[in-house]
Amino acid sequence: MIELAGVSKEFHARGKRTRALDPVDISVGEREFVALLGPSGCGKSTVLNMVAGLLAPTTGSVSYRGAPVAGPNGRVGYMTQKDTLLPWRTVADNVGIALELRCRAVTSAQRRERVAQALELVGLTGFDAHFPAELSGGMRKRAALARMLVYEPETLLLDEPFGALDAQLKIVLHQELLRLTRLRGMTVLFVTHDLSEAIALADRILVFSGRPGHIRSSHRVPFGRDRDVLTVQFEPAFATLYQELWSELKPEIEAPEPRA
Q: Are 95 and 133 in contact (CB under 8 A)?
């Protein structure tokens, strides 16, 4: 589904060159849930931006279903840590804006129907006329998720979407995300700093080094997609994998930040 071959990325600003990502090779299969785990500034979000077609690699190639990604990739949905809901639009209008911008052939009646379906999927039926300021943090995240799902992308690119939420609410939304991606048969590329989150959600975890990022290791998660996020953390295999990941990340986290 997704292929990065020999991909690196450098940024140039104020006469300085910063190498964010050393050459990496990443392959993501159809319907696979892959977590990118590593310290800040190691190029995880850069990978998502290149798959989305928002950035071009400095070296190497990025392909989606065998075709080069040479511009905005309309087959993926992208969700960041901030929900970016428009405060002057209702929940329904915020969700529907994706169809206005990306599916102009959809009629008003069709748009209303698809918005209602998306809100039902994320448990927000009845809140379509509310404004973002009237929602809790978790409900805002659900609205942002609905906005991404409404145009039916086949792949989700998620950049720490639940990072600002409390632990209890995270668990609820983790379970909801697994349910939705299983229901829709979606492929997921998920960026996180949270070891427990990566293990709870992913089929496979790629561990990045510090900047410039490269892939230190790949770990297969020994739980099916129908796992219970609340109880899986008490499995012995969960603790074992957590310790393996922490032993790899600890030196990276404790190392001094490299100079630009």
A: no
pLDDT digits 0-9 by tens, 43-70? 899 999 999 999 999 999 999 999 999 8
- Domains of the chain and any CATH numbers: 1-28+49-66 (no CATH), 79-188+200-208 (3.40.50.300)
Q: What phi, psi does 11 have (nearest 5°)?
A: -115, 145
pLDDT band at 257 (very low <50, low <70, confident <90, very high): low
* CA 53/CA 73 separation, integer angstroms: 5
Contact between 60 and 4 under an 8 Å Cβ cutoff? The reply is yes
Cα distance between the two ends of the chain: 34
Rg of the chain taking only CA atoms, in angstroms: 19
Task: Look at residue 102 in the predicted model and tell me its pLDDT.
Answer: 62
The pTM (predicted TM-score) of the whole model is 0.87
Strand partners for 60: none
